[in-house]
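Dear colleague,

Thank you for sharing your sequence with our group. We've completed the structure prediction you requested, and as agreed, I am returning the results in plain text so they can be pasted directly into your records. Please verify that the sequence below matches your submission; if there's any discrepancy, let me know and we will rerun it promptly.
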Amino acid sequence: MTKKIVLALIFLLALSTHSQTKKQTPSLEVKVKNYVKWFESLPDYKKREESIILVNKLNNMSPHDKGIWLALMTKYSTKESKKNVADSLSNDGVKKKLLATLKSYNIQNNEKIDTIIIIRATTGKERTFEKNAETIKKIADLKAIIALAEKKMDSIGGDVDFHYHNGNTIYMNAYHNAKNANYELPFLRDEIILYRGTGDDNWNSYLKDLYEVEVQVKTPHILTDEELDSGITSTTKFDKKKFIYIAKFVKGYNYYDGKIRDDKSSSFSINEKQQKENYDD
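Please find the predicted structure tokens below.
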């Protein structure tokens, strides 16, 4: 009888512990609510640091889970906490910063920006895959050259010295094609970008940080020789030009601690790619 009572007590204790464990597991909404409350309690420099961690966490979620997280954060976040999240930690934030930068970039006194068009924006991850795909194709092409050359040499037979001394150009051309391709292969393999960790921006960054941008500029019309010679005043008030820029987003960091992101010190490295012909409306 005593044994049964003890077993019953153990069973009830187990049920109670299981029930408490279930109760202690917070829902996703509670988790997000608590996270937002904790985030808002942090000092500004810590908020910027935690924002980076949060963005990486969101990028590793499924689109569904990410959407729920963002919706719940919006529900519980105050304007103050939203203000403290570094703007350039998002793709929209970087784009916004780029447009603001270009509006005052390299514009002469009498010129006026008419239109800014983002031709292409890429992430480090996209560029890595693109570069690796190009390199892998080159490797495949070299392997095809080697296979074709070896097949040609096998069909002819004999060895290199024999064909070299007898001036067999078909065999020797195939031999040199295979030799040159085999020489280039290791160098191409070295060009393949490998995953080296979460801090490798060339591989693991989901931030759109490299832009190709077309800037259309209006400048006061300068009379052509034909207009001057004819004495006819032009009705054209502005001449229009297109400029293509490559803009690389440069992350800003705290002056005293190079590991903490500081959005205010982020910037763009902008280079002119080419100037296009005058454009029409």
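Summary note from our side: The first strand starts at residue 112 and ends at 123.

Kind regards,
the structure core
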